[in-house]
Amino acid sequence: MIIMNWAMSYSSNTVETFSRPHAPVLLHESINVLKPECGACFIDATLGYGGHSELILKRLRSDGRLIAFDADPWAIAASRQRLADYPNIHFVNANFSRLKLELARLDLFSIDGILFDLGVSSPMLDEADRGFSYMNDSPLDMRMDPRLSLTAAEIIARFDEDELKELFFQYGEEHNSKAIARAIIKHRREKPLEKSRELAEILRPYSPPKHYHKMLSRIFQALRIKVNDELNVLKMALEQALELCKPGGRIVVISYHSLEDRIVKQFFTDACRGCICPPESPICTCQNEAQAKWIQKKPARASADEQNHNSRSRSAKLRAIEKR
Predict the structure, then answer these.
(1) Which of 140, 168, 166, 167 is nearest to 154 (CA)?
(2) What confidence tens digit (pLDDT) does each residue in 17-52 have?
(3) Does one domain contain both 116 and 19?
(4) Do 160 and 196 reside in the same domain of the chain?
(5) What order of strands is seen across the sheet that includes strand 89-92?
(6) CA–CA separation, 3 vs 194, rounded Å?
(7) How many structural domains is the chain composed of?
(8) Backbone angles phi, psi at 41, to 5 degrees
(9) pLDDT, tens digit (0-9, with 9 covering 90-100), for 299-312
């Protein structure tokens, strides 16, 4: 197993890096749709560096409660510092696929609303030892949670050509995936491929210069999704969120690429349609009642001003439903 340095150490420099200003995407739009109210209990399923959580806490005031999840212990540490003045927040260092389990440990079995801000935060991309960005010459790690065993370097080292091709096509929507997989296999026969910049240079011949960075983004996205099992845990979390929400509770999701948004849109569509019985069922047994209603069916997008100031917001889509 390839062990990455960042998971082996914890320093004040790391927390300092992660505490730098980070602009939350669609901040006011998402919280306005979520509608946190005094005395209620809400979940921030993707705490990150606390931007959305801070505004939720301000709306909840002192008699409300916020449970904030993040798989990344560095993000938890940074947000503890940022939100130290709020006694009504509880931090959970766990992936949001564990919503029901972790809330049960707190004797919580229903909630008034939940927010998901998916993807990778800007500080995480900037952290040199994490391997999320091809802009840094860092180890190919890409684990959001250091307790996970699989790293991007291990995928590059162990997957065969067909597995790599399928990975880049399915999770990166990269149409030149076969040639890219072949190039990786050829290179690793000569030497291990463990650094992000080395991978980026190997892939340079497989895209025109004007599309090179977009191609790299797709390949790095595919590796990150696989390492963190992002699409499967999203499906699990959405199911748990709908079950946990009280009637009137809202699920708000900000997604950043088509694979995420497709899952969110399909789940919300299914929750908002009448009959949810399997197609092969001869009779309806679900009372033909929708579980939720649309609050934001057509995705909300960042304003031109926000996109100009925060490039990460350009691909963001916000969708929301309300439990019936």
Answers:
(1) 140
(2) 454 557 899 999 999 999 999 999 999 999 999 999
(3) yes
(4) yes
(5) 89-92, 65-69, 41-44, 111-117, 245-255, 317-323, 292-300
(6) 11
(7) 2
(8) -120, 120
(9) 999 999 999 999 99
